Amino acid sequence: MRILSIIALWWVGVASLQAQTAYDPLAVEKIKSEHKDMTVKDEKRSREVPIRVHFPKEKTAAPVVLFSHGLGGSRENGEYYANHLTARGYIVVMLQHPGSDESVWKGAGLGQRMAAMEKAASGENLLLRIGDVSVVLDQLEVWNKEKDHPLNGRLDLKRVGMSGHSFGAVTTQAVSGQVAPIGKSTTEPRIKAALAMSPSAPRVGDPKKAFGEVKIPWMLLTGTKDDSPIGKIDVKSRLLVYPALPPGGKYELVLDKAEHSAFSERGSPLSKEKQNPNHHKAILAVSTAFWDAYLREDIAARKWLDSDEVKKVLEKDDTWQRK
Fold first, then answer.
1. Residue-wise DSSP of 169-219
2. Strand pairing of 47-56 and 91-95?
3. Which of 155, 179, 271, 280 has the smallest number of CB atoms closer than 10 Å to its CB?
4. Is 320 exposed, middle or buried (0-12, 13-18, 19+ CB in 10 A)?
5. Which residues of 25-61 are buried (b: 16+ CB within 10 A; e: fewer)?
6. What is the rounded distance in angstroms from the CA atom of residue 145 to the CA atom of residue 27?
7. How far is CA 309 from CA 98, 220, 253, 255, in A?
8. Where would I find the beta strands (DSSP E) of 2-134?
9. How far is CA 322 from CA 12, 147, 179, 290, in A?
10. Is residue 112 exposed (0-12), middle (13-18) or buried (19+ Cβ within 10 Å)?
11. Rg of the chain's alpha carbons, rounded to an integer?
12. Cα-Cα-Cα-Cα dihedral sign, residues 297, 300, 304, 306
């Protein structure tokens, strides 16, 4: 009887330890962090790219996650996302893309804003955005080696993730494996995993040809009401991406009743639904686990993503799938 009691106590102890150490993508350490605004100068294109770098104060090399804002946005967008990842020990670099940033609508009259935004959602600006990603990575490599720079030795540039919302999602897709109908590849080989909020299929061509050769892990986040008046991109287009991806490290979350603005800090004047606080909780949970799994190669994070544990942070009508 005594032996059985000892075994029972041992099992209770093991179960208690496992419960204490269970993977939790929403847990954050009390990591002090800060951000700095910087400018990347691209002399070849006579272009300057503003960035905001969020980083923990601990001076150790950390994985890097880039973020590309949506049409009309800025490097100040996505703060909730950047702050959470920084608290998890990541360095987050928020890009601002001149020509498709807030300068498009600031100063324009209400009647001109929509037309200006439509004009800015162009193939020319997409190519500029694609170039911005590589130029920023080039500059990060330089700063990481500069003795007196705030980022010296802080960046683990062998572990780089790319993410973005809306036009930023299109940018993310273009630099992480999507194949254009014509022209040369725009894939940036330094990117090891990609996350697209409000992704979309190309307007022309077969989605399978566009996404069938994606070699790195991808996560797609959208909503059942994720329509965009700019470019008339609807939910149907967003849902064409995941089925076209090859298996292996591919994930999709569709948030019930989430509109296009669900992925930003605040609602849009065009919103018809009240923002659901659980949407941000779910976004942060699955995106953090994704980066942990594929940038940090965290086995516990990968197991969490590939189990039913994910559903504990979702609501009953949200849809989650993986392959």
1. HHHHHHHTTPPPSSS-----TTEEEEEEES----SSS-HHHHHTT--S-EE
2. antiparallel
3. 271
4. middle
5. beebeeeebebeebebebeeeebebbbbbbbbeeeee
6. 32
7. 41, 18, 14, 16
8. 33-42, 47-56, 62-68, 91-95
9. 33, 43, 22, 12
10. exposed
11. 21
12. positive
Token pair of 39, please? Answer: 């400018």
| Summary mean pLDDT of the chain | 91
What pLDDT score does 204 carry?
Answer: 86
What size, in residues, is the chain?
A: 323
CB atoms inside a 10 Å sphere around CB 263: 27
DSSP, res 275: P
CATH 3.40.50.720 for domain 27-322, yes or no, is no
Per-residue pLDDT of 223-277, as tens digits, reads: 999 998 787 899 999 999 999 999 999 999 999 999 999 999 876 556 667 789 9
Query: Letter for the amino acid at 299?
Result: I
Greatest C-alpha distance within the chain: 83
Predicted pLDDT at 112 = 83
The angle subtended at Cα 111 by Cα 110 and Cα 116, nearest 5°, is 90
Encoded tokens for 320: 């989650």
The helix/strand/coil state of 293 is: helix
pLDDT greater than 50 at residue 10: no
